[in-house]
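Good morning C.,

I know you're traveling, so I'll keep this short. The sequence:
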Amino acid sequence: MSGSDEEASGTGGFVPSRRTMLVLGAAAASTVITVRPALAQTAGSVLNCEIPIPGPSAGGSYIAPDGRLVAAGTSGAAPPLARPLRGEEAKALLRSGAAPAGVDPAAAQAYANYIRRLQAGMSGFTCYASLQMPR
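The tokens, ready to paste straight into the viewer:
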């Protein structure tokens, strides 16, 4: 069969050599090996990110039970946390309601509601958003 006969019958085409297939396979394997550690590192950094409660711009505000910022000393409001919550703590708080060590359960619920109210541009939002991403 000549080249023009193959083109007319549609039986011609690119058939990769064994060498080409080996090169493609090696490239795919190295991609998998490269991406997996990056994904593992990303998952680890998400659990170590921090959410300040309240954010630095709140100026000592307290957290109402529904998660709003209120004036210091407001009845029923929780005081600001002395340290930011790590991603792992925030994830446990949001998923199961597990209060971080040394935190009153009622205050922990207010903090969870505060985290749920975070919006783009607020301190801790990126951490909260990354906790929402499926793994």
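Safe travels,
E.
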